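>> received
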Amino acid sequence: MNEIMNELIEEIQKDSRYLSFKDKSKLLLKKETNELLERYQETLNEINDLKKYEGYIDLTSKKEELKEIKKQMTSNQDIQEYYQSYYEINRLLDHVTQIIFKDISQILDTTGYKL
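>> returned
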């Protein structure tokens, strides 16, 4: 079974969708794009940390800042290309999973004892 799985992995790694995903992932390392992603993560973390004090402080400005960063991310071509390739490779992997495990729950008896 391991041999078959290794062959499947090799074939997926040759697939254009996987290759595209790997290429598009590199786009996120560009200075401007990477800084934008880091700002998003830092702001999100800051908001999450401050939520426990939400009754005492106003998070409106931080939430607006996060909203603005999301707008910038939406218009960033590198991020958009990455997410498009991410969704494509995940559709492929979902399809492969469905093929491999099709009807497996009906074939295998997994009934247990009722406690």
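>> The chain is about 80% helix and 0% strand.
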